[in-house]
Amino acid sequence: MTDSLGPVAAHLGGKDVGSSASPPQPRLIVITGPTGVGKTDLAIRLAERFDGEIISADSMQVYRHLDIGTAKPSSEEQARVPHHLIDVVEPDEEFNAAMFAEQADAAIRLLQRKKKVVFVVGGTGLYLDALLGGLLKAPGADARLRDSYREEAVRHGKEYLYERLKRVDPAAAVGIHPNDMVRTIRALEVMEQTGQSIVAIQGEHRFGNNSYDCIKIGLTIDRGLLYDRINKRVERMMEDGLVEEGEKLLGMGYEESSLPLQAMTYRNVISYVRGTHSRQEMVRLIQRDTRRYARRQLTWFKRDPAIKWFAPQDENMISRTVRSRVWGT
Predict the structure, then answer these.
(1) What is residue 293's predicted lDDT score, i.e. its pLDDT?
(2) Domains, the chain, ordered by start
(3) DSSP letters along 24-80, please?
(4) pLDDT of residue 19
(5) Distance of alpha carbon 90 from its chain centroid, rounded?
């Protein structure tokens, strides 16, 4: 990630075509879908088969020390296939879609020079849109508006702001968790500034970036089966030490108000650690919130007609799709 990204001579078919020729567009294999569907397992097997490396498009896996609760690829899995954009920042440091797009592009260009097949894998739709469609062309932040929204949240609670968003921009509210005050405020801000839904603005720009030659593969399964897998994964997280991970983060001095610790999993763990919830209630809430998150992810991705949808067991068909893109056969 720190390698120089200076100009290199373009080569096509092993022949030098001169420094004035533009290099070919990087080819990307994008694998996305809801949480718990099996993206990581599939991507690792495909990357091994096609001599590839993986760029994570997960807004939580960028944070160091948050391993169990983010379902981060294990050290063994990362040893099998190199991963990028994992463990990038500390939990109290800023990271956003613009930073992701910039760093992911640098990694893509590096892997292109190494002649590696690039797999972009993850379920954070905003990050994928920023990388593949360009950054959102919406008005900048309005400090006055944001301060007024925050004051309303202090007076009436976060739920009040979210209910307001549901009234003025129901399309945006569908894709935002009620506890995500940052995105709720941004959606309200854009609606008030432009009179347009942030979803409409995203739709206008999201397919406009022609920097990459990519194929988008979506994984999906029966909703009931997905929810069962999510529930069991949360139980495995508990067995693997999720509570201890939350206690360790607090012991390291990270504020529970920091963005990653306000995410659905860690927020509920901290409530248990503080004595607000029982262990049983904590598990139930994490499972419920994760299922709701999976629904929002599916709603987001279903808007993209370029995604080719498969079931995880369709691995042979997916492999043929990848082979046709990589080798044209």
Answers:
(1) 94
(2) 25-134+206-327 (3.40.50.300), 143-204 (1.10.20.140)
(3) PPPEEEEEE-STTSSHHHHHHHHHHHTTEEEEE--TTTTBTT--TTTTPPPHHHHHH
(4) 44
(5) 17
